[in-house]
Amino acid sequence: MAVLASALFGLGACSSLPESGPSAQDVQQQQLTGDQELRYEVVDIDPWVVQALRRRGYESFSARFGDRTLSPEPVIGVGDSVTVTIWEATSGGLFSAPIVADKIGAGSNSAMIPEQVVGRDGGITVPYAGRIHVAGKTTRAVQATVEKALEGKAIEPQVLVSVSRPVSNSVSVGGEVTAGARVPLSVKGDRLLDVLASAGGVRAPVNETFVELSRGSTTSRMPLLTIIANPSENIYLRPNDVLTLVR
């Protein structure tokens, strides 16, 4: 009898403990009596629901985005910072030091155009060549364009174009990462885990982290552990992709 009384007392005590959150009845009653729209649906968790959730599984980056190949060769885009260096065959030209009386060159036969940002018109300015359209072109193509524009003005010009700050050919990384940043993509191509490593890695435990990838109007999310365990999900990223780490 004493044991039964103790058990009954324990049950009564449990009913008096504070609740950790609203009950299903509270949610339904609030929606019926309040002026808010029906925003919640209460579902009983039974074995059938559990089995259905197990079969659902997670999304797949490989299936959703469908590209496990290298991205095309990077091209210059609007917002990138570009430098141009021009060499001439001999001194005394537009971009080289003049020849002194003893016919010996007094300085370098080259000149570097200061860094400039590609404008919204897709162009940069090169002295004596004018406005050069560079957006959507490789550095090699721009070099040939500048050399042709300087023909007859400079002495056998040779041009080197480099992108010092690639804004358009980068991936934005944010959320639960050590250092959120815009990570430039290399010419060799970078997979998802490569970009995360460049951002300093994740702050949250790996088993509690989800990776959300947005490309254009498409967004997909999957566990970081799945990407690590399944190399086919470690896809190559594309310029302007957005990675968000969620705990």
Explain what you see.
The strands form three sheets. The chain has a five-stranded mixed β-sheet with strand order 7-6-10-8-9. Strands 2-1-5 form a three-stranded antiparallel β-sheet, covered by helices on one side. The chain contains seven helices and ten strands. The two termini are 51 Å apart. Helices cover 26% and strands 23% of the residues. With 247 residues, the chain is α+β, with helices and mostly antiparallel strands. Among the domains are: 85 residues, wza like fold (2-Layer Sandwich); 78 residues, Outer membrane lipoprotein wza fold like.
Question: Might you state the CATH topology name of the domain at 81-165?
Answer: wza like fold
Shape: elongated
Helical run tally: 7
Average pLDDT works out at 83
Q: What radius of gyration results from the CA coordinates?
A: 31 Å
Oligomer: single chain
Runs in which pLDDT lies below 50 for 5 or more consecutive residues are 1-14, 101-107
Sheet with most strands = 5 strands, mixed
Strand-pairing-aware structural class: alpha+beta
**Helix share bin:** 25-40%
Please identify, by name, the CATH architecture of the domain at 81-165.
2-Layer Sandwich
How would you write the strand order of the largest sheet?
Answer: 7-6-10-8-9
CATH class of the domain at 81-165: Alpha Beta
Strand content: 15-25%
- Our measurement of the CA-to-CA distance between the termini, rounded to an integer number of angstroms, reads 51 Å
CATH superfamily of the domain at 81-165: wza like domain
Order of helices and strands: HHHHEEEEHEEEHEEHE
Question: Would you count the extended β strands for me?
Answer: 10
